[in-house]
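Record type: monomer structure entry
Structure origin: computed from sequence
Chain ID: A
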Amino acid sequence: MTKDKNNNEISSQVKASQEKSKNQLLWEENSQDIYVIRSAKDDVAYVPYDKYRNAPRLEWYNGEKDQHFCFLTANGYQPENLTGPALTKVIPWNLDTAQPPQSYNGQPLQPGYLLDLRVLHMSRLLNPALEIKMDFKQLPPLKYPIEQSHTKQPEQSSDYTGKKDDGFLPEDKRYQLENVPYDNLYIVSWKDPLGNHKIDEYDPYEITYLTSDMLDECDPAHEVSTGNTMVVLESYFKKAGVQVGALNPKDWEYVSLHGSCYVANLNSFVK
């Protein structure tokens, strides 16, 4: 009896482990999907991870011997308007000097939006209070009080535009930032999105391009998601004007965002 009991316990543990691995794999597969709240149309597109990872590739970095940079200025600088924001506009000025690779087989590049998933982190945001009791009074004090911390202001003027072609947007091109482009989407993503990315390392990434027509081919969000999902997208993102979000499914299980972590609200640019 004891032997049979032990065998049953081992079998149960194996099944539980397999089920956990299966659920983890499913979460990993879905965690990088994106909901895109369209600007030109009153709908939400559900963009699976495979959809944008297999889209025409414009730029990548896999090391010093395997790299191609598409978005550079005439003098080889990174465009200032594409550096930093999680969601911003790709304007004609960016496309004037864009250099797609010879292997590029997609549609001609058009103004649109750049979504940089590298800026968004999948860190756990909610304190799992039921699992870990955190006593904030026991946390170590800051080395310097917040009110004593100051950021040194740059010596240059706030309207500094830089030298010609050094990455700064020329003043006579700034009007392009006010235009609302079609929903063409440039997506920047890590090659290993679930890996650990240190702030002092330059990790492999790539930029792929989805045209507005390709977004039209994606399933509408209401066909793949629950009613709760649509409430969240409509109320907390679209109506509130929130541009981007990174939602860890383990934190937001009650929202049931179909396992998706990322939300891009292109509608927030519409005036």
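Annotation 1: The longest strand covers residues 185-190.
Annotation 2: The two ends are 74 Å apart (CA to CA).
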